[in-house]
Amino acid sequence: xxxxxxxxxxxxxxxxxxxxxxxxxxxxxxxxxxxxxxxxxxxxxxxxxxxxxxxxxxxxxxxxxxxxxxxxxxxxxxxxxxxxxxxxxxxxxxxxxxxxxxxxxxxxxxxxxxxxxxxxxxxxxxxxxxxxxxxxxxxxxxxxxxxxxxxxxxxxxxxxxxxxxxxxxxxxxxxxxxxxxxxxxxxxxxxxxxxxxxxxxxxxxxxxxxxxxxxxxxxxxxxxxxxxxxxxxxxxxxxxxxxxxxxxxxxxxxxxxxxxxxxxxxxxxxxxxxxxxxxxxxxxxxxxxxxxxxxxxxxxxxxxxxxxxxxxxxxxxxxxxxxxxxxxxxxxxxxxxxxxxxxxxxxxxxxxxxxxxxxxxxxxxxxxxxxxxxxxxxxxxxxxxxxxxxxxxxxxxxxxxxxxxxxxxxxxxxxxxxxxxxxxxxxxxxxxxxxxxxxxxx
Length: 442
Hints:
Strand content: 15-25%
Largest sheet: 9 strands, mixed
Number of strands: 18
């Protein structure tokens, strides 16, 4: 895993720490243009890329074609890679484009989305400064003229001329989200929904670490959101760059498809299998990746393990419980797994001793918000200062590994509410019967 201990410190998602900062030297940028059978739009987008104010010697253009029929025309100096037509494979073709590229920073565009001259410089500033940055530009919409002058640019018609008088409304849901989150400065675990694959950029090292786009996505929509969620949980810094403007040819898909609800349902069902956060995951069904793993260290009396495991699953029904090697699970339950078999959860609660959760509201709220702000790790204690374990977000852990220190997130100590250390012989009958207070267990 690449390490970047010399990168500027961004705590949590506070990309505003780099406001006004320009890279000391510009990186090589590879623009990956995903294309399928849109010759007019592709020509316009490539012309717009030729007009960028980014140094030409540092700008590589790769057109990644998803099996268009016939030839695909690109100018000299533009790299063209193609895959066979085997259905809608946007995720795969973007990965193909990345493999063919050489830049330190990756910039993704769709063939029907033409950037303004300052787009690449604006969108790649943060990834050039910090390898964890993932930026998303502003996608505006217009009905373009298809006359050859506006396509070729040889009639002196600029991109701005081409859209004058034909601008279409921007998606209100997206504009509202950027406004509420202060351009994703206040991003949370569901902000992946505002990272749009047609206008985004990131560092190559983080892209490679996370593993690129999931090529099992073979229909329109969702592959960019799933990717953005994995980047987020790997510690990415999300930022919307409104001055990085690219013009999409035509309205948003939601405005031009009669079966939009069916498409949205299919996308939501697909994402719900792998994104475990509240609001995205099923409300009761288990997901492939749990939101929380509770790891109980060491060997302990059977009664204490039983109550601790049962209480944890009562508070977090879709969690996974991990017991150390040699510890016999107190009950046959697929959510209880041995050490070494635990999934990669968004949050891990590492327990040195069994505890009982008697009032889950406080700990649920803590788990839900952990890693979305500046706090990535919480050391839990009771009123007497006893150790109740450590909660740590995957975002904090992954970023700490890359940096070589924990400067990317804050660690705090909190006195837990409704959580108690278990004694070695808790009253199991009282626990399963639901009577008595914490004095019967702790």
